[in-house]
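Check this:
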Amino acid sequence: MSESASPSPLRYPAPLSTYRFQLTPDFGFDRVAELAPYLRDLGVSHVYLSPILQAVPESRHGYDVVDHSRVRAEFGGIEGLRALSATLAEHGIGVVVDIVPNHMTIPVPESGNAQLWSVLKDGPASPYARWFDIDWAGGGGKVDMPVLGGGEPVPDGDVLRYYDHEFPLPDTHYRLVDWRRGPGYRRFFDVSSLIGLRVEDPEVFDATHAVILSLVEEGVVHGLRVDHPDGLAEPRGYLARLREASGVWIVAEKILVGDERLPADWDCDGTTGYEVLNRITRLFVDPAGERPLLELFATHTGVPHDYATVVRESKAEVLALFFGAEIDRLHASVGSDRQTLVELLAAMPVYRAYVVPGEPVPEESARIVEEAGRVAAERLPEGAPVGEVVQRVLTGPADAVTRFQQTCGPVMAKGVEDTALYRWYPLSCLNEVGGEPDRFGLPVAEFHASCREMSPSTMTTLSTHDTKRSEDVRARLAVLSELPGEWAAAVGEWSSKVSFDPALDYLAWQNLMAAWPIDPDRFFDYLFKAAREAKTSISWVTPDPAYERGLRDFVERAIGECGTSIAEFAARIEPYARSNSLGQKLLQLMMPGVPDVYWGNETTDFSLVDPDNRRPVDFPRRRRLLAETEARAGAGAGSPAAGGGLSWDAAKLLVTTRALNLRRRLDPAAPYLPLEADEHAVAFARGDRAVAVATRLPVGLQRRGGWGNRTFTLPHGRWRDLLTGAEHTGRIPLAHLLAVHPVALLERD
């Protein structure tokens, strides 16, 4: 929450940390309950569950809700959730759940969504007509349903069947159209199977939140994560209503770009942490690698150095390809020139500029939209009504203002996240949600400054179900910024043996090395998705079987002919990647905020974009490893036997559990105090209780000859390193402090 917003009293304590679970039909509430002792030992204060309301039965993610009145049966239903909450409570652990206010799914068959079926059957006369954001006027009283792709619908009694689809007869209130066309309703991004909800309507809010709020009232649920608030008509009003109704800790999945800040008037405790993830990643990237990696990227792909150009072109493409229906509806509200509106949407630099109809336009919101207007004007014919369109979306009719806000996010998401980031990737660890891949490195002073401004209640993260690649994949990729010459030589060798698509190959080599070892099926699935997202050769709507066969052959040959060399390169950089991995983990767990650990990432995890990052986690192995690591760490304080010789997995698990358990003893509001350290280290204290020290840019450190005689001065008192058991006080050599691990976590005795 911003400093200007008055905090609401919470009925439950805010989490000290969270552990994110991806629930699936084969990993439900009972499986999480079995892990309660492990989670307690790990130091977790709350589990953080993916959506729990009834979704499509086979759904692996849960964002496709079909029934808000039930806890998902495949997970164990409401009784299973109650039992889980009770078990966790016995171990001192609370429950945070992910909620999806923006949309419901349109299942196949469509009768699986009772509210939608009623609307398709009875139209505006349905008692659920106000639930959905439908363009009745633009559709001439009917809602377009994009499902057709060959063949004819067949009447069957009182339903109309089209393959597995079914619709009520007579077809008075809907129209079946080609599946490539935009629908007659607001959707999630360009996903026509997810229909927008109107939770701004109190009746819809109450109906869709009744079960969640009852679980809060009952004490089963203790905190909420809000999915995609930027899609809502009025996020501020929604969050205020949710806070008033729930009285719990709330974080919003808000993507902040660059220097953007969370709106000061949002009644929530912060974001889900993408801005933190990106700052931490950049802290471990060497800016000296920018120029050679840009040149290498351009050489292999032919793509220009200028990222902004790629973003502009990508947004223009997705507007033309996917958002015709959205632009038509927006244009009907805004009026004026359609192309000017398109260029204004393409020029918007953020996911949303928060303007509420009927209220004064915030100064920052006006600045963002007006600057976008100036950028748009450069691409429009002289005399285009840019100023008029800008004013209409800022101060015009309520529907125009709101609809513009709701359209900006999908254009950013599809144009940048799902297109530009797959086209422009000199160093792909920078290509994350909300990231800026043309900004190499982050000065330590800038990192410290951002941490000092952070709220103690905002969430921090390194990996999520939406990240393009896991934290340890990024840790490996960051090393390339320090070894551009060696990397260029390796890629040159591999490319001389195997090549396929210049727009994709260089992305393939980066991620093949960074996710190594990876089997051909997993890697093909990743590259096939990347190619469709890039849209340079194929896309989701323009398949090409010949390209697909060529891509599969590339994957098989790349792994078969270059696998040994790739494995050798990954092994060669492992000490540096391990240093980055442990360093970023320690910083995230000890900086201000509520640290979230994505399931399985307490040890190394080399996952790529979903669904790869939703694969099952081997918890029995992690439980054994935790027991072994704790036993070994107690073997002899401060000696190599205490911490040296640990595997990367064991060392990361040790850092995670010691940091999370320390957080239980640490005041969440403990001040963040930067500490003077070497250029290859970042260090800070949390109040007078804890100190964290992490190595950064480890290749450069080794080239320099190591720590040498450089020292680090601890705050007053006697300190114990929780990773090794060694005791320290005063001024100590960094070579001694970081002799066993590239990080140190110290607690004052």
